[in-house]
Specification:
It is built from ten helices and three strands. The protein is mainly alpha-helical. The two termini are about 30 Å apart.
Length: about 290
């Protein structure tokens, strides 16, 4: 699950505007909204145009703040001895998958060309993963080990989380929740950080409760499926992934991942319907290897 999914333990996301910053007038935002990116013309999956409301929240500031929070989380994990070393085989595996998927990110969001992508692995029994705005990715060992994910299934998780960031669901969610009259103090309460000027305050205790909409989840499923297929990962593995998630949900409390990622036959059926749409992309990608 990504920070945008509001469930990464010990992680919080905020805007950190400089003192001189003021929210742009509504008219300027609405003009900017006209430039909102639609789904790529060559996309094989069918998704709606990205939400224009996301333009109400400055993307650069959200990404910068998420990057700071990510750095703090990584530093905390390192201090606790929970951060995988550079030579860890599972980390190498994840970074290899990321190298296969990232080249196709910009077709979904041109801002991704300037993102400094990072991926880390944190030792935890939680079945969880996330991608913050700006391309900061983390997996927990629990999702790899407890679900015994294949590379193809791990790529589907990564593609889904990358899609949340690429489609700027967190940015849009904030705008949808607060509207055009949003103020810094209200935004601070939404993000659960107290004063926006203190980005590190209460990092270890603040848990965000906002969830993505059903439409956002559908969007991330399909965009993630296409990203993974373009990276030469078997599309059908999206089905086996969610079947594993469903079985894991039978345990005590269920996976943390499922607290914000609804499961069920409808989700699997939707993915199954879209597998044939990206099968050709997968076969082309395999042929190029």
């Amino acid at each position: 699950m990504c920070l945008a999914c509001y469930g990464a333990p010990g992680v919080a996301e905020s805007l950190h505007p400089p003192a001189s910053h003021r929210w742009m007038p509504r008219r300027a935002f609405l003009l900017a909204a006209g430039a909102a990116a639609a789904a790529p013309a060559l996309a094989q999956v069918q998704v709606d145009e990205a939400s224009r409301l996301r333009n109400l929240v400055p993307a650069g500031e959200l990404e910068a703040a998420a990057g700071q929070q990510y750095s703090q989380m990584i530093a905390q994990a390192r201090q606790q001895g929970a951060l995988a070393s550079e030579g860890h085989p599972q980390l190498k595996r994840l970074r290899g998958i990321a190298q296969d998927l990232v080249p196709y990110a910009a077709r979904w969001n041109d801002r991704a060309r300037g993102w400094r992508w990072e991926i880390n692995l944190i030792g935890s029994k939680q079945i969880n993963a996330f991608c913050m705005p700006g391309g900061k990715i983390a997996f927990f060992t629990g999702i790899l080990d407890q679900l015994a994910l294949t590379d193809d299934e791990a790529a589907m998780v990564m593609g889904h989380e990358m899609a949340h960031a690429l489609r700027e669901h967190a940015r849009a969610r904030i705008a949808k929740t607060q509207g055009t009259s949003i103020g810094l103090s209200v935004l601070s309460q939404v993000l659960g950080l107290g004063q926006l000027g203190s980005i590190a305050a209460d990092v270890g205790t603040q848990l965000l409760s906002l969830r993505f909409s059903r439409e956002d989840e559908i969007d991330a499923d399909l965009v993630g499926l296409e990203l993974a297929a373009r990276g030469a990962y078997l599309p059908q593995s999206a089905i086996s992934l969610w079947e594993k998630m469903g079985r894991a949900a039978g345990g005590s409390g269920g996976p943390a991942f499922l607290s914000t990622h609804p499961r069920g036959p409808e989700r699997i059926a939707r993915l199954q319907d879209n597998v044939p749409r990206v099968q050709g992309l997968y076969e082309q990608a395999v042929g190029r290897r």
